[in-house]
TrEMBL record, chains A, B:
Gene3D superfamilies noted in UniProt: Winged helix-like DNA-binding domain superfamily/Winged helix DNA-binding domain (1.10.10.10)
UniProt keyword Transcription regulation present: yes
UniProt cross-references to SUPFAM superfamilies, sorted A to Z: Winged helix' DNA-binding domain
Protein name, per record: ArsR family transcriptional regulator
PANTHER family associated with the record: TRANSCRIPTIONAL REGULATOR, ARSR FAMILY, TRANSCRIPTIONAL REGULATORY PROTEIN
Keywords: DNA-binding, Transcription, Transcription regulation
Length: 111, 111
DNA sequence: TTCGTAGTACGACAAACGTCGTACAAGCCT
DNA sequence: AGGCTTGTACGACGTTTGTCGTACTACGAA
């Protein structure tokens, strides 16, 4: 399921991520229909650079945080790469918009 | 939570439905991130007239069907009104688009 | 080398969710 | 009236999901 590799803008080892062609819109909606994950995505959308997992104020434990980042990555919403002990995340904005035109924009604009 | 009444285009008693101002985008995403419910919404989007619950080929039992229609109604996505023994559903397209501009369109266009 | 930092993996647990069957209510038709 | 149709209500069930703690790995800094 996880096939290709994420591009790693600042070097570092990219984590496996799914091809967006294999992701259905239901999976994306399900992933984003969770408060913590939506907060992560909103934060990433505002950020200009990839963010390390620890840079978020999520109010959940480390393991829960890890869980949500994995769900987002496996749903094709974010890409991640490791650098040192940190794991950086960024939105797959372009690919997402190509696969589901207007969807991310509409969700981020909501509220 | 369920306050106002749905308009009933063809007469019939409208069921209570939430004010869209009280609905968050997460709730909508969660509701639509389920295959059966997304099928219902897609069918309603194609239909020109409200559809009775029995008009759908959902492949689930009657009680499961009832459950999904309620989730959609309580999430502000559909409105329902009763007429005789039937319960008709329609998308709250206009309100939804006002509350979450572009969201419904993007989801329906996906795939 | 030793310590601290960043994050994962695994197992546990409770709550939410999707599913169903049965029993029931209300309206239509003969 | 009686039966059929359409759909609900309720309770049960198994699964998924979100949460945590503990133990662990890997890297960087003192």
């Amino acid at each position: 399921m996880l096939t290709s590799r994420a591009r790693s803008p600042a070097a570092g080892k990219a984590l496996e991520q799914p091809d967006l062609r294999n992701i259905g819109v239901e999976q994306v909606l399900r992933a984003l229909g969770e408060p913590v994950r939506l907060r992560i995505v909103r934060a990433l959308a505002c950020a200009e650079h990839p963010m390390s997992c620890g840079a978020f104020e999520l109010g959940v434990s480390k393991s829960t945080s890890t869980h949500h980042f994995r769900v987002l990555r496996e749903s094709g919403i974010i890409s991640q790469y490791e650098e040192g002990t940190a794991r950086y995340s960024e939105l797959r904005t372009t690919e997402l918009d190509e696969r589901f035109p207007g969807l991310l924009r509409a969700i981020l604009d909501a509220e």
